[in-house]
Write a structure and sequence with these properties.
This protein is of the alpha/beta class and 166 residues long. The chain has one domain: P-loop containing nucleotide triphosphate hydrolases (Rossmann fold), CATH 3.40.50. Helices cover 51% and strands 14% of the residues. It contains eight helices and five strands. Helix 4 runs parallel beside helix 5. The longest helix is centred in the last third of the chain and has 15 residues. The chain is globular, with a radius of gyration of 15 Å.
């Protein structure tokens, strides 16, 4: 079976949405942002979900939303916490090539100014550095392709991804 979706994973600030929109245009695919889908189905922001229900409930909601994604010919930008669900990642991989947008922690810190209000699924006592280390191992585990996205332009990385997808 030919996998028709391109699944983007990576930390918040890695460029999943920006690159995803450009990649969808370049490949003629539709674009889906799963964080936006969660907010739409829940009727509130990710941060509001965390504030009222806790980050573990956000992870449960995210898993349920991801398990219902049954699209073809889409570029799918996932939330940074998507890889916490093995079941959801296996579901997405059935019809998609998973691309990890790898960005250095220093660049992420420059890109993210709202760490405490961005709706990040993390323990209250967890630093950004700890979250980065924990998640990076998961991103590498599920990635079919790893693209360095710290310093290259969106255009460059779109071309690189298209080339690597064959």
């Amino acid at each position: 079976m030919i996998k028709s979706n391109i699944i983007l994973i990576g930390m918040p600030g890695a460029g999943k949405t920006s690159l995803g929109i450009k990649l969808a245009r370049k490949t003629g695919k539709n674009f889906l942002d799963t964080d936006s889908l969660i907010e739409k189905t829940q009727g509130r922001t990710l941060q509001e979900i965390i504030d009222t229900l806790g980050y573990m409930e956000l992870l449960r909601i995210e898993e349920n939303v991801l398990l219902k994604v049954n699209h073809n010919d889409h570029v799918i930008s996932t939330g940074g916490s998507a890889p916490y669900s093995h079941k959801a990642m296996m579901h997405l991989k059935k019809n998609g090539i998973v691309i990890f947008l790898d960005v250095t922690i220093d660049v992420l810190k420059k890109r993210i100014h709202n760490f405490n209000t961005r709706g990040l699924a993390k323990r209250a006592d967890q630093s950004f550095e700890e979250l980065f280390e924990e998640r990076k191992a998961l991103y590498v585990k599920y990635a079919d392709i790893i693209v360095e996205n710290s310093f290259m332009s969106l255009d460059h990385n779109c071309k690189e991804i298209v080339k690597r997808l064959g």
